[in-house]
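Design review, sub-item: ligand-bound model
Attendees: FS, YL, KQ
YL presented the inputs for the adenosine-5'-diphosphate complex:
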Amino acid sequence: MLNIILGGAPGSGKGTISELIMNQYGLQHLSTGDVLRAEIKSGSVLGQEIDAIISKGNLVPDSKMIDLIENYLNNLAPDCKGVIFDGFPRTVEQAKALTELLTAHNMDAVMIDLYAEESVIINRLINRGKTSGRADDNLETIKKRLDVYQTQTKPVCEYFLNLRKYFMVNSNINPTCTFSQIEALLTMMNK
Ligand code: ADP
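KQ shared the predicted structure:
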C-alpha cells in the first residue's frame, strides 16, 4: 500500500496534486475539507456547527476529526491500493492519532509537504475565491487560516521529520512541476 499524507498551507495545491497522484497511482483521496463541506451542505446540526468554525478560519476539534478518520479507515476496502490524506493531520494531536490508527491497521504513510510562498498562496486563494463559493476564501479568513497553519499545523512537519517520514517539494511554480517532483520522490522510494 502507498499511503501519502499531503501537507502544505491552504492554497499550496493539495487538492490539485491529490487528483494527479490519484490518477497516476490509483489511490483513494480523502480530503477532510471536502468531507466537512459535504456535512455543511447536508444542513445537519453538526454541519451548522462546522460551518461556524470553518468560515472563521479555525480548526474543527481534534476529537471530531480523529473519529472521522478512524471511521474511514475501518471502512477501507480490502483491495485499496492506498490513501492520500489531504488536509489531515492538521495538529500534532491528530498526527499522533493517525500514527496509532495506521499501525493498528498494519498501514504506514509518508508525508509529502507542498511548499509555496505566502504571496503565491494568497494570490491563488483570492483567485479561487472568485469561483469557489467557499466562505473561507476571502482575505481576512485567508490570513487567519495562514496564521492557524503556522501555529498549529507546521509542527506536524517536525513530527514526521523526527519519524524520518517527511519530504518537501516546491509547489510555487505549477502543478506539473510539483507532480514531477513527487513522482521522482516515489520512484526513489521504490513506490
Ligand atoms: P485549505 O487547505 O485550503 O484550508 P481544506 O479544504 O483542507 O482547505 O480545509 C478547509 C477548512 O476545513 C480548514 O480551514 C478547517 O477549518 C477545516 N478542516 C479541514 N481539515 C481539518 C482537520 N484535519 N482538522 C481540523 N479542521 C479541518
